[in-house]
UniProtKB/TrEMBL annotation:
Lineage: Bacteria, Pseudomonadati, Pseudomonadota, Gammaproteobacteria, Alteromonadales
Organism for this UniProt entry: Bowmanella pacifica
Source superkingdom: Bacteria
Pfam families assigned: adh_short_C2
InterPro entries: NAD(P)-bd_dom_sf (IPR036291), SDR_fam (IPR002347)
Protein name, entry field: 3-oxoacyl-[acyl-carrier protein] reductase
């Protein structure tokens, strides 16, 4: 947990929120979306 800046484990809702964003974002192409609570920042 100390390695995750948001201080919590990811939940199913975190994934579905990201999917919902991508479904609405019609001008986003060729991106990798990391859903890791900021862990990959460090």
């Amino acid at each position: 947990m100390a390695q995750i800046p948001l201080g919590r484990l990811g939940q199913e809702q975190d994934i579905t929120d990201a999917i919902g964003f991508l479904l609405k974002a019609n001008y986003v192409t060729g991106q990798t979306l990391k859903i890791d609570g900021g862990r990959s920042l460090g």
